[in-house]
Structure formats: C-alpha cells, structure tokens
Amino acid sequence: MHPMVKPALRRGWRDLNTVQFGMAPAHAMVLGPMDTATGSLMTLLDGTRGLPLLRDEGRRMGLPDGHVDGLVERLSLAGLLDDATGGGPAADALRGKPAIYDRLRPDAASLSLVAPEPGEAMRRLAARRSLRVQVRGAGRVGAVLASTLSGAGVGQVDVQDGGRVEPWDVAPGGLPVESIGERRDEAARRAVRGAAPGRPPRRGGTRCTPPTEDPGLALVIIAPREGLAVHAPDPASSESLIESGTPHLYAGIVEGTGVVGPLVLPGDTACAGCLDRGRTDRDPTWPRLLAQWRSGQSRQVPACDLALATTVAGLAAGHALAFLDGRSPSSVGARWEVSLPGFDWHARPVWQHPGCPCGAAEKAKGEQTSDDEGPHETMAGQQPHAARLSGTWRAHV
After folding, report:
1. Where are the domains of the chain?
2. What are phi and psi of 268, to 5 degrees?
3. What is the distance between the alpha carbons of residues 274 and 310, in angstroms, rounded to a whole number?
4. Does the pLDDT value for residue 393 go beyond 90?
5. For 3-121, CATH number?
6. What is the DSSP string of 214-242?
7. What is the tens place of the pLDDT at every residue in 99-134?
8. 66-105 per-position pLDDT tens digit
9. What's 131-365's CATH class?
10. Of 5, 6, 12, 9, residue with least CA distance to 24
11. What does the alpha-carbon distance between residue 200 and residue 34 come to, in Å, rounded to a whole number?
12. What does DSSP say about strands 392-395 and 29-31: parallel, antiparallel, or unpaired?
C-alpha cells in the first residue's frame, strides 16, 4: 500500500491544530486536534511512499512506534485515504496505459470522493472498461449520452437506431455536422469510438442489427428521438428486457420537458408497465389519450431544446455510471423531470403495480412482510469515526 490523502480535496488550516480537507460540504472533512509532527507526516502521504518508508520517516520525526499505522488506519476509516497502487490487476493494467489513464484522471479523482475504501476508485474505474452498454436512440440525447459513457471509460457502448442523420440531430458532443445524411447508427458509433480514451475513430461502418437482449449487457438506455416513447413508453417494447433481466433506463425529451428514469431493475422495481397501469388508475381517460397520440404520426420536427437535451444526456449518463459503479441512483423507482424555461428538477415516484406481470409489486410485498416480521437490531454503544459539523465532517486524529 502507498497511502495518499485524497488529492481531489483541497487542504486548508482552520487554526494551528485543525485542518480541513475539501471545500464543498458534501465531501469536506475537518481533522483535529493535530500536533505539528503529525501535520508534517500528513504531507508525506502523497502516494510515493509505502508503509515501511513512512514508518522510517515517522521515527526520524520522533513519533512513537505505531503512530504512522494508527494515522493511516484512522484516515482510511474516515474515508480520506486512497492507495496509489490499489485497485487490483485491472487497475494496474490501466495505470500501465498512460495515454488512456491520463484521459480518465479527472474521473478517477471524482470517484475517489464517493469510494471510501483506499484503491476502490481505481477498481471501479478499471471495472468500467469490461462493461457493455447499449443505447437505443441516436438523437440529440442518445448520441451525446453514448459518447459521454464512452469518454468516461465504459469499455463497449453500442448505439442502435434507424434512418439517416438529419440536420436537427446534430449536437455538440454527439453527432457532428459532417454526419448529416449518414446512417444514424454508424455515425453514432463513430462518435462513440472518437470519445473513447485511447481509441481513435474507425473508418467505415458496421451493419445495423436489431436490438437484442444480450446477457452480457450491463445496462440498456432507452433514449428515443420521439418524445411520446419516453413520456409514455410502450410496455411491449421492454418485455424482452424484463424477461432477460436486463436493467434499463429511460431518458429523453417531450415537448420542452426532459425525463430521466425510471431505472428499471426487472422483477424488483417499477417498469414501463407499472407506469402505464398507475397512470390509468389515476386518470381513467389515459388509455384514450394514449391511443390518439400513438395513432397520429407527427411530421413536424420534435421540440428538443439543445441545452435541455444536453442536460438530460448528462444526468442520464451520471445515473447510468452510478449504477454501473455499483451504486443505486435516485432514478430507481422514480422519474426525474425538468422543464423549460426554469430548469428546475423534480422527482416523480413510479410505484410497482400489483396488476403488472413484471412481478415487482409481489416481490416488494413479500420483502415488506419479511421486514415487518423480522427482528430489528441496533449497534448500541458504537461511536462513528466521523460526525457532521456545520456542513463538514469532523474526525479526531
């Protein structure tokens, strides 16, 4: 282990005995009280030294045996410590490719803020390179979203869509103006390859294949160019995803409103069928309206504000990456919506419906019953290693 205080957090001394790491309240932490020798030792935790060398440095400073190990342990428990050599073989392989790793250094630094274990940030970043994601839709939202995932280190991002690129499909970070008239899927895949770290664009296209539920897919993102398909997704279009157990996330624009979610975990959380049935329960006229909207083919260019589309693509990519990194984003069981002109996000819950064949409601009911009947235990007498204090975390060193 080569310990280092997480470099993503800026350091500042509040007084002679108290140091603060980080500026923003979400991740800032205050450490103290701290003597001068320990403060000097902290400056050596920069990832260039292993524990044996750090122990030697501690002895030269007059620190007692065990002080270095105790400090490293407490910093690690507080979530302030990273390991410059950690993350396992895949992380080592990534570090061995400077051209790729340098592109991903900001992502690694960001992951270190939410990955508490030393070396965990690099492990997660390296794990992204083995994942496969499919994006269905290559419009202003889908193409930007796919390129963002690729640029963030996801190893394989495939884009599915039909037709040819129209002028209104073009967007910064997505389909370039030079792709107008080309097949959408080919143009989007080329954009994805161009965004990938260390992977130059490949000349020539690939044959378009219909969407498939490949068991190797970690996530499918449904980003239709047609607003109705994200506002009221057809449950039939996701049946194969439910049957194969493939997680899928919805994202898109409908009439000046951006939508991200729900992120569907088949059999566990609400799906498109649950959404449709819940709407019908609340509004009996919903099926009639939906039938009219689906039967009328609009020939107009859809309303898709560029700033709104970029915002939706960014949020959807963030939720997707959080899920791929092993966390549960807030789009699980909810739809985040934002509308022009205020750009104020709000969440709408999507509940499991007992009439939906996906089975999520039945499973949730069973888990609730089990929780109600089971014992509830608390860890009495244990004190946390850090505690909230005025927007930051305070830990005793």
Report:
1. 3-121, 131-365
2. -115, -40
3. 28
4. no
5. 3.90.930
6. -TT-SEEEE--SSTHHHHS--GGGGHHHH
7. 999 999 999 999 999 988 999 999 999 999 999 999
8. 999 999 998 998 889 999 999 999 999 999 999 999 999 9
9. alpha beta
10. 9
11. 49
12. parallel
